[in-house]
Amino acid sequence: xxxxxxxxxxxALVLAMAYVGVPYxxxxxxxxxxxDCSGFVQxxxxxxxxxxxxxxxxxxxxxxxxxxxxxxxPGDLVFFNTLGRPYSHVGIYVGQGRFVHSPRPGAQxxxxxxxxxxxxxxxxxxxxxxxxxxxxxxx
Length: 139
Hints:
The chain is of the alpha+beta class. The chain has one domain: endopeptidase domain like (from Nostoc punctiforme) (endopeptidase fold (from Nostoc punctiforme), Alpha-Beta Complex). It is about 35% helix and about 25% strand. The chain is built from five helices and eight strands; from the N terminus they run H-E-E-H-H-E-E-E-E-E-H-E-H. The protein has a six-stranded antiparallel sheet with strand order 3-8-4-5-6-7. Strand 6 and strand 7 form a beta hairpin. Residues about 135-139 have low confidence and may be disordered. One of its GO terms (biological process) is proteolysis. Its EC number is 3.4.-.-. One of its GO terms (molecular function) is cysteine-type peptidase activity.
């Protein structure tokens, strides 16, 4: 059973799922205008939990704690190497092996499976937003 922080991260998924169908927009951080992958994660945690995460996927990876895949809980972050460099793409773990993300230009925020061939080959790891420590850094 998740602790309070886990329940808060899972609660952010309500907002994250509301983004499904929002168009990809490079540099975007806005529900109405579109989002890129890290803008989607940043907006979800800011609006859903009041947590200020950094802007890029790589910075978000640095600001969060690594966890094993077996420890994934809803609301954790999943990272991928999609541009030939570590932590170049990020999504939010939903549960049951799925994550939500903003994949690429011309696409929309959507659900994917971690075990899909494309994502499995590019998986960089899972990380957890430590709710109290990230909030303290944001103040």
